[in-house]
Design goal:
Shape: flat
Radius of gyration: 16 Å
Number of strands: 6
Number of helices: 2
Largest sheet: 3 strands, antiparallel
Oligomer: single chain
Strand content: 35-45%
């Protein structure tokens, strides 16, 4: 309805793009990487977007256990995720914005 596209990045940015041109209109740096979906909703006629940032789960294990010596030590993909600490932090924050 607003002709905007929202998405989050592993580096922790939430971005808004013009749906027609793809041009970036806005960005905000959150506290941690975004691996979930951006949500939109209305309350009392005002539109909001929200996103939960925070690398955790299988992706976060590789960052939380720095003693992994080999990529295979983390049982599959977890070992590959240990390099995420070069781009983002562990943690969890709910960011909410009004349009």
């Amino acid at each position: 309805a607003s002709d905007l596209v929202f998405y989050g990045t592993l580096e922790g940015y939430i971005k808004a793009l013009d749906a027609q041109s793809g041009r970036e209109l806005w960005r905000f740096k959150t506290a941690s990487g975004i691996i979930g979906n951006v949500n939109t909703y209305k309350n009392d006629g005002k539109q909001f977007i929200s996103v939960l940032s925070g690398v955790g789960g299988w992706a976060g294990i590789g960052m939380a256990i720095p003693s992994l010596e080999n990529d295979s030590d983390g049982l599959g993909a977890v070992g590959a995720y240990k390099a995420l600490s070069s781009w983002t932090n562990l943690g969890g924050v709910l960011s909410v914005f009004s349009l």
